[in-house]
Every structure is written in structure tokens, then in C-alpha cells.
Write a structure and sequence with these properties.
Layout: H1 35-39, H2 60-76, H3 78-92, E1 128-132, E2 138-140, H4 142-147, E3 151-158, E4 164-174, H5 175-182, E5 190-195, E6 201-205, H6 206-209, E7 214-220, E8 223-224, E9 234-237, E10 249-255
Parallel strand pairs: 1-10
Antiparallel strand pairs: 1-2, 3-4, 4-7, 5-6, 5-10, 7-8, 7-9
The structure holds ligand MTE and molybdenum atom (MO).
The site of the ligand Nc1nc2c(c(=O)[nH]1)N[C@H]1C(S)=C(S)[C@@H](COP(=O)(O)O)O[C@H]1N2 has 19 residues, from loops.
């Protein structure tokens, strides 16, 4: 099996974080069926999970082998873990069983990525840019984000395909803090989020984004957000289904109108309130 740790797949140019384009670049990026069709059936059954049922099936033995490798990686740490991350990404992108979601230490989270590898950025090369309809465009490093006031939240996480992880801790900077610092122009009504996987996008209205429980998250469960969970920085939109919480966050653009995000082109609701959207009736998370 080949895997790629560069954060993009062969044939897809690096670094084009979908700023000028909202549709996935290649046919391979597209789910086979519109997600809502199956998401509505609730699929707690991972085999029915549109977010996982991509690419060709991977044998259960191979997947279990990966899990064993994962356990070894925790013991040796560091670069082995990075390699496991890429293997995990390329396997789970093709794993309709969802078994790869049950990671050692995963705490009930399933792993999702619409790209085929886990991109890595850190202290030196991570940037979060805020631009668009703002008075003061800015680019933050990790240390800059850590120096801003940190907000701690403990909430249930709810995926639109049915799984829920109770009481997960997140901390980071409120979106409203970043928006105030940038100075949103009066013509701005929404935010468009881009990711350094080069594929995923999300959106929020300005009103939604200014809630106190909308974070640019730096920690999850008390530790820096891991690469697999979208670190070093991911969005955490607490009151919304987890697809709104873009992993590998690299750009926030203030826009005139809402630009629907990746999954929203395939039927997920743009306003992703837990329990009040996507035809689901889950208990609220905020
Ligand atoms: N960049 C990016 N962000 C993403 C996704 C993705 O595929 N790529 N998947 C979304 C979905 S559908 C879910 S449920 C959560 C999964 O987060 P986790 O992998 O930390 O469990 O991330 C969301 N953010
Ligand atoms: Mo999801």
C-alpha cells in the first residue's frame, strides 16, 4: 500500500485550499451517493456511513493489522505515529466497515478525512489567515493563538451519521475574539473556512460564529489537537453537527454571503444545529 504524508494526493496540486473554488477537485473526492440519502437512515451502522464509504473496500484483516500497528506506534511515539497517521488516513478513507474508527485511545471518535492522508503542520509552518471583508487581515502562528484568551468547553460531540462522544473537552480562541481583532466590515455576513488538507471547506453565518461556543480549538481532551483530529488547529462548532468543525483549519474568510461547505454540496444542512437539522432529532449539545 502506498501512502502520502505530504497532505495531498498525486494529481492534486498542493496548497490550493479551495479559496476560489467550492467543489471538490476530482471525482475521487466525491461521495458515491449524496450523503443525506443514507445519513437520514441514521447510520449508526458504519457500513452505511456515507462519510466512510469511499473508495474500494479494505479487508478486515488489513484494518485490524493497522490497529495493531497503531498500538505499537503509541509505544514508540514520534515519527512512527506520523507514519501511522498517513496509513490510517489512506486505509480509513477506503474502509466501509468503520473499524479504523475504533482507534486505540480514540475514545469513541471515528476518524474522518475526505482527503487521503493526514496533513501535518506545526510550530514553524502553521498559519491561520483571516481575510476577506475585514479591516485588518492577519496571519496567526500557533504561539499567537495561544497568547490570546483561551476558552474551555466540555460538550458532547455529535456526528450527523449517528455516533456521539459524551463530554469532550475543547479549548481555544473564540471565533468572536478573532473577528473583533480583524474588524469585520459592514458588508460581511458570513465566514468561509478553508483547510490545509486542500479539500475541506465549511461555513457559518456571522451571527452563528459570534456565539460563545464557537471556537478555534487548540486542545482536545486536555492535549494539543492531534494531527488525526485536525491539529494543530481545528474549528469546534459546539452546538452543531461535527461536520461543521473543520479539521486542519488554515483560513477564515469573511464573505458577503454564505458559501456552502464540502458536505453541504451533497445535502447536509448549512445550518447544522444538533437535533434541529439534517432530519435528525438528537439531544442538543449546547
Ligand atoms: N478537513 C476536514 N475536516 C472535517 C472532516 C474532513 O473530512 N476533513 N470531516 C468532518 C466530519 S463529517 C466529522 S464527523 C469530524 C470528525 O472529526 P474526527 O476525525 O476528529 O473524529 O470532522 C469534520 N471535519
Ligand atoms: Mo461527521
Amino acid at each position: 500500500m502506498s501512502n502520502h504524508s505530504s497532505g495531498h494526493s498525486p494529481g492534486r496540486p498542493p496548497g490550493d485550499a479551495a479559496g476560489d473554488e467550492h467543489l471538490p477537485r476530482t471525482a475521487r473526492d466525491l461521495p458515491k451517493d449524496p450523503p443525506r440519502k443514507r445519513a437520514r437512515k441514521g447510520a449508526e451502522d458504519p457500513a452505511q456511513d456515507p462519510e466512510l464509504g469511499r473508495g474500494s473496500p479494505v479487508g478486515r484483516r488489513l484494518v485490524l493489522g493497522m490497529l495493531g500497528l497503531g498500538a505499537a506506534g503509541v509505544a514508540v511515539g514520534g515519527s512512527m505515529q506520523d507514519r501511522i497517521d498517513s496509513v490510517l488516513a489512506s486505509v480509513s478513507a477506503k474502509d466501509p466497515t468503520g473499524v479504523t474508527g475504533l482507534l486505540p485511545g480514540g475514545g469513541g471518535f471515528r476518524f474522518y478525512s475526505v482527503s487521503e492522508s493526514i496533513p501535518h503542520r506545526g510550530e514553524d509552518d502553521y498559519r491561520l489567515t483571516i481575510g476577506g471583508l475585514v479591516d485588518r487581515p492577519v496571519s496567526y502562528r500557533l504561539a499567537d493563538l495561544r497568547a490570546l484568551p483561551q476558552v474551555h468547553l466540555v460538550r458532547d460531540v455529535q456526528c450527523v451519521t449517528g455516533w456521539r462522544v459524551p463530554r469532550t473537552a475543547f479549548s481555544g480562541v473564540r471565533l468572536s475574539t478573532l473577528l473583533d481583532a480583524a474588524g469585520v466590515k459592514s458588508s460581511g455576513t458570513a465566514l468561509h473556512f478553508t483547510c490545509f488538507d486542500g479539500v475541506y471547506t465549511e461555513s457559518l453565518t456571522l451571527e452563528q460564529a459570534r456565539r460563545g461556543d464557537m471556537l478555534v480549538a487548540l486542545t482536545m481532551d486536555g492535549k494539543p489537537v492531534t494531527a488525526a483530529h485536525g491539529g494543530p488547529v481545528r474549528l469546534y462548532a459546539a452546538p452543531m453537527y461535527f461536520y461543521k468543525s473543520a479539521k486542519w483549519l488554515s483560513g477564515i474568510t469573511v464573505t458577503k454571503d454564505v458559501q456552502p461547505g464540502y458536505w453541504e454540496h451533497y445535502g447536509y444542512d448549512v445550518d447544522g444545529w444538533v437535533g434541529k437539522s439534517n432530519g435528525r432529532h438528537d439531544d442538543p449539545t449546547s
